[in-house]
Each structure stands twice: as C-alpha cells, then as structure tokens.
Design goal:
Strand 7 (128-129) and strand 8 (137-139) form a beta hairpin. This protein has a single domain, classed as Bira Bifunctional Protein, Domain 2 (BirA Bifunctional Protein, domain 2, 2-Layer Sandwich). It starts with a strand and ends with a strand. It has 6 helices and 12 strands. The chain has helices at 17-32, 64-69, 99-102, 106-123, 190-194, 200-215, and strands at residues 4-11, 38-43, 48-51, 73-76, 83-86, 90-96, 128-129, 137-139, 146-155, 158-166, 217-220, 234-235. The longest helix is centred in the middle third of the chain and has 18 residues, at 106-123. 28% of the residues lie in helices and 27% in strands. It is globular. It is α+β, with helices and mostly antiparallel strands and 236 residues long. Strands 1, 2, 6, 7, 8, 9, 10, 11 and 12 form a 9-stranded mixed β-sheet that branches.
Length: 236
C-alpha cells in the first residue's frame, strides 16, 4: 500500500488517558473533514485499565480499592476488544487514518498494525509473530508472551484508538486484569525478554520506521493546530 504523507505527533511526557482520548477525537473530526492528513500519535499513559465496548467487567480482577491504592484509573471506551492495560514504558500508538484512501478494510488494517509491531520488535532484537485466532503480537522467544495489543474503532472510514507495544511497563499491573480476555496467555515485554530495557527513543524510532514501511508513508512535522497540554507538547 502507499499512503503518501502522514503527520507524526509524539507526546514526550506522560499523557493522562482522558487528555489523549480528547486529542484523538479532535483529530478524527479534522481528518473526516479532510482538513489534515493521516496522523500517527505516539505517547505513554499513566497507569490505566481500559475496557472496550463489549468487555466483561469481570475482566478486571482487582478491587476498586486496590486499583485506587496503586494509582490505576479505569475507563470504558468505544474501541473494540476486551480489557487492557496502559502505563509508563509502553508505547501507545493512535493512528488516525482514512482507510478508504489506503484501500484497506478493517481486517487488513489490523493485520498491518500487527506487522508494524512485529517489525519493530525484530529491530529491537526480539522475534515475534501472530497467533491464529487471536489479535496481537506474541513473542517467539519467551513462552509465547504477548508484547503487542490492538483495539481499534472506525468511524466513517477513519480509524482511531490503535496499538500498545510493551517496551518496559510494570508487568505486575497485568495481574489486575484478564488481558484481552486471554487468561491462559502471559504478557511480556521487550525488556523482560532481552534482560534489559532498550532506550524508549530507540523503541519509538523502531515503531515509526516500521509504520512507514508497512503503510508506505512518509512523515511530516505536526503543523495543523495540535492541542498542547501544560506538561509538554508534541514534536516530530
């Protein structure tokens, strides 16, 4: 596929989930009106559990009191999928793309996001692949642990939400949920497999390069009225 130019937005500081969600919605509306090009947002969130549209609340196995004690928020959102975790050390990618312009259906789009994470993991020294009948990316070298999750939403052909790539998150936080409804599959990270964490910049660069390769896109600087928060802004 060849997607042309894509705007790259990188938020350097931890972005509260609600702020990141509002930013997505704002950019989605601009993209629907063709006011901006396709956009990839990369960020990290403070600890938060998110439940997709049809997620069973029993997928959260920790009590509300324990989650509050550990400083972990809970949000029910409009993406597909079950319960997942976001937190520091995890690269979250929110591609806001016009699938019609890319000639993609949802299934091929999800497969492309998996390929982005597979290639990025390989760049960082970790072999990974898909598993039949599931969505996401799983390590080959660490008991099949999941290192990349996907949950998307498409409205009028424009995507939002996206993928989460585990570089070096606190894996103990996954004990509070049934990750993506898969109780028999462990969750792992690039750091856990390698024995040390790669620099986040190197991991982020690997994601950017893989995304450009898979979607056939070149990146341009963010210059279309990006919303900025008090803790930091965005850069290329």
């Amino acid at each position: 596929m060849s997607g042309g130019a894509c705007r790259l937005v990188i938020l350097d500081d931890l972005t509260p989930y609600d702020e990141g969600h509002a930013l997505q919605l704002d950019i989605v509306e601009q993209r629907k009106r063709s006011e901006i090009p396709d956009t990839l947002i990369l960020l990290e969130h403070p600890p938060v559990l998110t439940l997709g549209r049809n997620a069973d609340e029993q997928g959260v196995v920790a009590s509300a009191d324990l989650l509050k004690l550990r400083g972990i928020d809970v949000r029910r959102i409009e993406r597909g999928g079950q319960v997942t975790y976001h937190g520091p050390g995890q690269i979250v990618g929110y591609p806001i793309l016009n699938l019609h312009g890319l000639g993609l259906g949802v299934a091929k789009y999800v497969a492309a996001l998996e390929e982005v994470m597979i290639l990025a993991a390989r760049t960082l020294g970790v072999a990974s692949d898909r598993k039949d009948g599931t969505t996401g990316v799983f390590s080959i070298s660490d008991s099949g642990g999941k290192i990349g999750a996907i949950g998307v939403r498409v409205t009028r052909g424009v995507t939002y939400h996206g993928f989460a790539f585990n570089v070096d998150p606190d894996l103990s936080h996954y004990d509070f949920i049934v990750p993506c409804g898969m109780s028999d599959t462990p969750v792992t990270s690039i750091a856990a497999i390698l024995g040390e964490a790669p620099p986040m910049k190197a991991a982020r660069d690997a994601i950017v390069e893989s995304f450009a390769e898979v979607f056939g896109m070149g990146f341009v600087r963010p210059e279309f009225g990006l919303r900025r928060g008090p803790r930091g802004g965005a850069r290329r």
